[in-house]
Structure formats: structure tokens, C-alpha cells
Design goal:
With 196 residues, the protein is mainly beta. The chain is built from 4 helices and 11 strands; from the N terminus they run αααβββββββββββα. A hairpin with a 4-residue loop joins strand 1 and strand 2. It is globular and about 65 Å long.
């Protein structure tokens, strides 16, 4: 078996972000496959939907590898001020898109993403992903993800998390940089009372 030598992740990231429609060919040119990513995977900590391993980070780029357990789902989140491309290297996923108003509303329909698919994200997208199988995803962003917001429907709040946190409510309060509640959503009884 030939040992995988890490590619120049900076070159990979710049090429993928410059030509996202050619991402598959670019990854093949750099000989990046799911088999070659496996030794780099970091399993998730208990309670986290995926394990995170940053493979490269500079002032303007980030490459992160996520290792998902079957059935794991991350919370709705944005990507801070970043845009990028995510390669679903192994496993099938569902993706949901959201919009924040008085509540966090799902927009469109749930999309099933097959292994090998690419997901393109922008700095104003809010989405969540769920792994239907054990999965691996390779994330390429510019600039590096900073001030990512995680949307917690349970507490009706938006959490701005530290750069080393994934799309979940962190157990360590130090990873929560800011917490903002959503506007009060009246109950049905309150709405009826206000309508009189």
C-alpha cells in the first residue's frame, strides 16, 4: 500500500475555489480520494455530530475534514463570512436550508445528497446536514470560517461560536462568543388575545 503524502492543501483550496465546477477533476489531479482521507479522519467526541480536523488554515483559506457518525445531524448554521465548497467524500447526507425571521424557517425541500456530491455554500446561507451513513466531508472555505453562527431552535437563540467549534451547541461555554435570543414568538393564545 502506498502511503498518502498530504497534498499542498493551499494549492488544492485555491484551485477548488477558483473553479468550483471543476472541483472533482481538481481533487483527482491532486489524487485526493476518500480512501486517502481515511487516515486523516478524527472521530467525533461524544455528543458531537462529527469530528473536525483542520488540514490547512491561512489568512484567506481553510480546509477542514469532518468525520460523521451514521444518523448524526448538525444544527442549522451559517459559515460566518465565508463561502466555499464541501465534497461529500463518503456517505449519503440530507441537507436543509433555513431563513431566520421571527423564527428559524425551513425554505425549500430537504435535499438528499449522494456520496461524491459537492455542496456550495455562501456567506449568507443557513443550512444543516445529516449523515445517513457514516460519512466524510472535505470543506474548503475562503476566508477561514470565523464568527460562525449556530441556530438553536430549542433555546430560540443564535450562538456565535469560536473558530474551533463545529455546528452544535458547545459543551464548553468558552466556545460561545455571543448569544442572542430570537424575537418573542407569541403563542396561539397570545395571538388570539391580541387580535381582540
Amino acid at each position: 500500500m502506498v502511503e498518502f503524502v498530504d497534498p499542498n492543501w493551499e494549492l488544492v483550496a485555491r484551485a477548488v475555489l477558483a473553479q468550483p465546477r471543476n472541483a472533482r477533476a481538481i481533487l483527482e489531479r491532486f489524487e485526493i480520494s476518500r480512501e486517502r482521507l481515511l487516515p486523516l479522519c478524527r472521530p467525533p467526541e461524544e455528543g458531537d455530530p462529527y469530528g473536525r480536523k483542520v488540514l490547512f488554515r491561512s489568512e484567506d483559506l481553510e480546509v477542514m475534514l469532518a468525520t460523521w457518525t451514521s444518523g448524526a445531524e448538525c444544527l442549522p448554521h451559517d459559515h460566518g463570512f465565508s463561502s466555499g465548497t464541501v465534497w461529500l467524500a463518503a456517505g449519503r447526507f440530507t441537507e436543509r436550508r433555513f431563513m431566520l425571521g421571527d423564527d428559524l424557517d425551513e425554505v425549500g425541500t430537504m435535499i438528499i445528497r449522494q456520496s461524491g456530491a459537492f455542496v456550495h455554500v455562501t456567506d449568507d446561507d443557513i443550512h444543516s446536514m445529516r449523515s445517513l451513513d457514516a460519512g466524510i466531508s472535505l470543506h474548503v472555505y475562503s476566508p477561514p470560517v470565523h464568527a460562525m453562527k449556530v441556530y438553536d431552535k430549542g433555546s430560540r437563540s443564535t450562538l456565535t461560536v469560536s473558530d474551533d467549534c463545529g455546528a452544535w451547541v458547545p459543551r464548553d461555554e468558552a466556545q460561545i462568543r455571543k448569544r442572542a435570543g430570537w424575537a418573542h414568538k407569541p403563542s396561539i393564545d397570545e395571538e388570539r388575545s391580541n387580535a381582540r
